[in-house]
Amino acid sequence: MEKSTTFAQMHELSIAQSIVALAEEHARRHQALAIEEIEIEIGRMAGVELQTFAFALACAVKNSMLEKARIIRHDIDGEGRCAECDDSFKVETLLSPCPRCGSYAVQLTRGKELRVKSIVINK
Ligand SMILES: [Zn+2]
C-alpha cells in the first residue's frame, strides 16, 4: 500500500514538473517575465489522481515562473461510444459496458486528455 502511494505521487509529480517546464519554455521563447495564467485539461480517465496532482503542481510551481500564476484546471469526464450500437454515454471506468446494449466494445472518445490548453504570459 505504502509503496504504490509513493509511486502514484511520483507519477503526478512528474506530470506537474513537465507542465511547469513546458510553460517556462513557452514564456522564455516569448521573452516573458512571468506567467500570469495557465489552463490545463485533465481527463478523468487519464490515469491522474486529481487531488494528488493538485498538490504536486502546487509544489512544482514553487520558485518557477508559474509561482504567482492563476492555475485553471478543467477536469474532463469520460465519454465513450459503443462500437455495436453507436450510442454515446458517460464512462466512469475503463471497463464499463454500453448502458444501451451491454456490449464491452466501448471506445473512449473523451476523458484521456492531459494537456496545457493555454498560457498567458506577462512581458
Ligand atoms: Zn451499445
Entry keywords:
hypothetical protein PF0899 fold; three-stranded mixed beta sheet; 2 helices; elongated; binds zinc ion
Ordered list of secondary-structure elements with their pairings:
Elements: H1 2-29, E1 34-43, H2 50-60, E2 70-76, E3 78-82, E4 88-91, E5 106-110, E6 114-122
Parallel strand pairs: 1-2
Antiparallel strand pairs: 1-6, 3-4, 3-5
Helix pairs in contact: 1-2
The structure holds zinc ion.
Zinc ion binds at residues 82, 84-85, 87, 98, 100-101, 103.
> What's the helical proportion of residues?
25-40%
Largest sheet: 3 strands, mixed
* Computed structural class: alpha+beta
Mean pLDDT: 92
User: What is the CATH architecture term?
Assistant: 2-Layer Sandwich
Describe, in plain words, how this protein is organized in 3D:
It is a single chain. 32% of the residues lie in helices and 33% in strands. The protein contains two helices and six strands, in the order αβαβββββ. The mean pLDDT is 92. The chain binds zinc ion (ZN).
Brief summary:
The protein has 123 residues and is an alpha+beta fold.
